[in-house]
Hints:
The protein is mainly α.
Amino acid sequence: MRRSDFVLKPYAQSSNLRAAGQLLNTLIPYGLLWLLLAKLPSQEPLLALPVLALMVLFSARCFSLMHDCGHYALFESRGLNRAAGFLFGIVNAIPQYPWSRGHAFHHKHNGDWEKYKGPSALVSTEEYQTYSSFGKKFYAFLRHPLMLFPGGFFYLIIKPRLALLLGCYGFFAHGLGQFRKGGFATIPELFKTYKSKHWYTTAEFWDLLFNNIGVISLWLLMGAWLGHGRFWISYSVVMTFSAAIFICIFFVQHNFEGSYAHRTEGWSYDRGAIEGSSYLKMPAIFNWFSADIGYHNIHHLSEFIPNYNLRACHERNAHLLRNVKVLRMGDIPSCFRYILWNRETNSLEVIP
């Protein structure tokens, strides 16, 4: 099958009205849940559990909608997508623009495992065999499903702040080096010559900076309103579990038995989209909270299809998707076994 065999274009039409409706039906309930949490008696923490569970799901939905904004698919205009994406990035404490540019690399190379090895940075079977006994156990330990939780906390709470600090330190060290060489450079000139692994363009830096300003300001305001201890306990739970959910969903949509995991030579974009992505069947309620990202083959065939058109597009092309990998929620644990890439057989494997 080829991408041209699918009917995609009619579904790649964004609607500002539907997008605005999704923004409102996500952010307003999420905000109301925080208000409800504040009203609950602090001496009865069990009462907060169902509220926190709902907040986790709404936070995960915020991330999925931010993801749509990164593809310029949620709203009709790039400007509205950038504004909404930035807002969702504040809510979920992650800089949307740098994240989306990195995610675009994934879309461009999905299934080419020489260039993109997934969110868990999987290694080849050959490289794995060079590890010591401890190294092999540590590799498996870091990719255990339970590591989604500390990993999720780090991913949202710590990593964006650390990236700004380390990147700025490198930037000032670069400027000082230029000065010591006898040259005075303006800030725009320094940005042009400074290469950072924490941001790749000046626009990414500004998004990272303003996201951090917004997030930290929100933390201080929420802490002052709710009490810093109560806020941080609740917030940490919500961010940790929501990050674990969307990292898990992303992982299983590409790491499964039979996934297309090719070398660069002979790699096919179309096969990467169709065979290197799964169709994750979930109950309707979870489809809503994940913004239909389970229709992942369609999403990879055309990233410009907004989430609210994915199911219709999937149904229109169902006859071409009969042989794609279908996963159900009960299949998710088994996907975490496929954490090695065999470059000889172009496949994912379990640790022997």
